[in-house]
């Protein structure tokens, strides 16, 4: 058996712990939908305060979840530069190698918007959080671009995965131009986050129970800020969007190859 395929790090315990972790996640989402958010809606405050409470609740629960997985021996993680995230009008752009990427980001941000795939509105574990937190559906419409840009102009932080789906293992990320268009319409600053998972796991083609032979490690690194204004200077919006998207693709290809 190749060394890479040898089962290590208490493999069978990790399989049980992974099943337990995702069970906790799913049950927690249903409790949020049926109990927590309805109770929070009874508290005094306007729509903005309710959204902030919901986002803080989800952030804390996501942090509990990843720390629970670490305590159970399922994974380890390191997040370098997380303190630079969460600024007003900041568009956080991240690659998407794994199912848990958004969980790690939201866990480290107390009040952020997020562009998420449309199917989550039909998922009983995620429908409550995405609705209560005011996340934006990535349905590909012009309204989605407008809503995302307005979120940034309103001074919120926004997370987006320009690939639109999880990265195919072994291939560099391919970014759609929607994220660049949103950035140029509304962002005060663009901040890349480079995410790597070793060994590769929880990709689009892998079910949760196909765990790797050894414990997975998540590495998240916050990169240098990009200024939207420099791309708009002397260029039309479509050309500026193309240039920004090309630069992002080159940066991610280089950074993730290290």
UniProtKB/TrEMBL annotation:
Chain ranges of the Phospholipid/glycerol acyltransferase domain: 90-198
> In Gene Ontology terms, what is a biological process of this protein?
phosphatidic acid biosynthetic process
Report which superkingdom the organism of origin falls in. Bacteria
Chain ranges passing through the membrane: 12-37, 58-79
Ranges in coiled-coil conformation? none
Q: Quote the Pfam families the UniProt record gives.
A: Acyltransferase
**Biological pathway:** Lipid metabolism
Tell me which UniProt keywords the record has, alphabetically: Acyltransferase, Membrane, Transferase, Transmembrane, Transmembrane helix
Q: Which InterPro entries match?
A: Plipid/glycerol_acylTrfase
What Gene Ontology terms describe what this protein does at the molecular function level? 1-acylglycerol-3-phosphate O-acyltransferase activity
Show the PANTHER family listed in the entry: 1-ACYL-SN-GLYCEROL-3-PHOSPHATE ACYLTRANSFERASE, PHOSPHOLIPID_GLYCEROL ACYLTRANSFERASE DOMAIN-CONTAINING PROTEIN
Q: What is this protein called?
A: 1-acyl-sn-glycerol-3-phosphate acyltransferases
Task: Give the originating organism.
Answer: Atopomonas hussainii
